[in-house]
Amino acid sequence: MGIFLDAGQSRGRFWSEVTQSAAPAGSAGRALVRVPVMTAGVTEAHVLFRNVQMAFGTRVVLRDFSCAFPRSKITCILGGSGAGKTTILRLIGGLVRPQSGTIDVAGTEISHLTESQLYPVRQKLGMMFQGGAMLNSLTIFDNLAFPLREHTRLTATEITKEVHATLAAVGLADVDTLLPGQLSGGMVKRAALARALLMKPEVLLCDEPFSGLDPISVKRIEALLRRINQQMGVTVLISSHHIPSTLRMADQVVLLHEQRAVIGAPNDLRNDPDPNIAEFFNEEVRDEDLHALAGSAA
Amino acid sequence: MAFFQDLGWRVLRLIEELGRMAFFSGGILRALVTRPIRLRRFIAEIYDLGVLSLVIICVCGATVGMVLGLQGYNTLVRFGAEESLGAVVGLSLIRELGPVLTALLATGRAGSATAAEIGTMVATEQLDGLRMMSINPVHLVITPKALAMTAVMPLLTALFIVCGLGGGYVVGVVLMGIDPGSYMSSLKAAVVFRDDVAGSLLKASVFGMLVGLISTYRGYTCAPTSAGVSAATTSTVVIASVSVLLFDYVITALWGV
Amino acid sequence: MTRSPLRDFVVGLFVFAGLAAIAYLSMSIGGLSLHNDGGLKVFASFDQIGGLKPRSPVVIAGVKVGQIDSIELNQDFRARVALNLRRDLQLPSDTSASIMTSGLLGDQYIALQLGGDDRILKNGDEISITESAVILERLIGKLIHNSDVKKDE
Asked: Could you tell me the pTM of the whole model?
């Protein structure tokens, strides 16, 4: 069931199959998972989930979930709606706490930290929310300058330079005085990306960065994320519905399906013998699929 | 039997909710003494909550004063005591109608706006965005609003009362022909700072704290959907209004002793 | 928050207006005084003050010249009223103070009737000639008693 990572294989194939535990939700769960052994020469995990159990009320989202997100790589988290993609990102950010299990973010175990203890950890993270999460009452410039004004001692001129440079890097110009409500969806996402980057994070969390965008905007953001990963060495975690970009850019894919998590390189998963997994990557819709979907609609 | 179970459950939930609100206010108080001081936001909130409520407060104040003048005159004239109209209008406004009506009006206008604004920020993940930037949303958003509401309420109440006195004056003196000197002197003779004005300002401050706390709490804890925001807004108005009236009784009973 | 000097000004105006309203209600109407206003302060003791209250007016020939500061009970169980009068008043020391009612059911006030003495009242002096308030019930009681007496005769 478990496969180990061979030392020396920097892009190994991780299998972390989680069994459907018969134990009730809330118990520690029985892990039939071999956690990859960290040795020198292996791409270390920047973020590490161990046996995480996450439920909202009675609805269990993650059951005994373990996963390593390698440093300076792009990992895409795929899955149906409600499968837990966004939850994983929120767990990393400490916005929600797991019922059990541990989460290591850049060396710090965060599942039991209080809000104020989380702040130094969050300084290493940048999060790009699905809706942008920009403050609606502030202009774009003020929105971006906000974290700099709060946490750094930069002068106004320096802040202006930083903000403009970052806006230019994401391809936005002349938006300083606009309010978030005045921007298009794609522009808001790029502004949110810029804001997440301003504090020079080690880990960039992107919640559905491609949702609701036209194909050109998708390519733009994809290019930006790849450039950020390559040039700045930032670990990028993306939760996404968008298969083509995933296949193009992901170093590792985490596929969430009915509380099981399947982890591996995109091409490996795409050609996986398990039809449920391979199906996910197949974009064609066949008549049999439609009938099956109609039958299983619940 | 099920009725009592339900009732018991509701009471427990209510106590739980009060406990959560206590923690919430603790968070606000702690944020008050934490730097940085958000002066600019505080001033902006005073504008949103106070200045933008001025029109409704002053218009309603004047109208209420006019109604008091009319009703008061019609009643007093039967006893030949119409010269005391100033006292009647003044005491009613200062002791009760000023603080309570101002608080209710402010709840409807400013309180619901606050709950809706904060609720929308929750629903659009703006507060989560702040947390991810290591900024405490209570410190940045909630505390200035709650503090501004507390500060603004006595000011609005005073303006309401002054407009009301003016309205009563217009009706009594201008329309009904009472001697202006009598209106003012009966007003001044009847109103005592310690019992009436100070109590009124105390009530206004307490009401301001109540409305500020309730509106920010309901917004902060609302479900992150548009239905949740709307529920937060309406429940703010209901809960704040009832609380204002309850506390009005308590303060009146304690202060008037 | 975008900087807006206009908004800051409006807020300042609002706060000023509110504080001014509070001050007006407190001092002008509520009678809070922040300083000793240097009026002529004299005292008068009465057996019965009726409905007299602090801030009730003090009147000479129908014109208001001051107000009551406070009312206390002295050792003889009479009511000692502190009058706060206009500073420039020259009142003979045998001035009398009576408690009157404005109208039949109106508020009560103190009316001063000047005497003829050469000596002038100073701060802290006592008005010795006082006339207590008329209590309506006593008056009616007297009337009934008198009519009974008449009947008996």
From this structure: 0.79
